[in-house]
What does this fold into?
Amino acid sequence: MTNQETSSTELEHLLSLLREQYKHLPKIAEETFRSLGKERAGYFTRLFNDWIDILSAVHDTYSEDELSDGLMYIYLSGLSKEVHWFQLLFLAGNYPLLHRSLRYVWEMIFRAYYVDTYVRKSPDDPEPPGPTVDDKAEWLAQHERKMFQWHKFMQPMLRQLLPQAEGTEIEQYYKALWDKLNEYVHPSMALLYRMVVDVPGLLMTDSFDKEWASETIKMATMIFDLVWVAIISRFPSCAELIAQKGLLLEYPIVTAALSNF
It folds into this structure.
């Protein structure tokens, strides 16, 4: 047997293992579709399309030179991979992993906004980040310890992007949401209880749960409301194009911000 034949046989064996291992996923996806309906079951596909429109608006209003020196543009481009997987995880009923990823995206975009706008917002700092992407990434690495904490980083960033939210129910909501998502990042008792008691069997395998699926959609909407606000704040010239075209999903804060255009 030649090496090519051996490789083909091994590949087919691997593919057969994958088909067997994940053969239950189409059934979960079908149950998700039948229970939630076409639009809600395909929520993350529409979110992906909103990402395309926002990225296109940024491209159409900023030059490559203006985009190449910031982390926000790199992370905005990288959102395609995250959101692409969100739809699969959602249809597969893997809500815990999806929630972990939502927190990751939220923090990632806030970090990018923070470092890209730092020099303008803190002109008196004697040791600001340098002008290149590498400089900014290195500077973030030196200061990242505080970025895991709500009161030292996430709350100040929220107030910077939404000054009107300070001390309101909006700020309280996002603090509660941050705490909730942390339960998915760490092996918390709350998550263990939910996977063992609330949705029996989810600790061992994936399955559809209507309440959890609906909660996931709500969480994603609120997080991407902030994500899009941060991106538009970083690239304000794109706002008019986004307002003209509109977005597929409803984001309360973004909608209010774009109403001026």
In short: The first helix runs from residue 3 to 21. The chain has one domain: 24-258. The mean pLDDT is 90. Residues 24-258 form one domain.
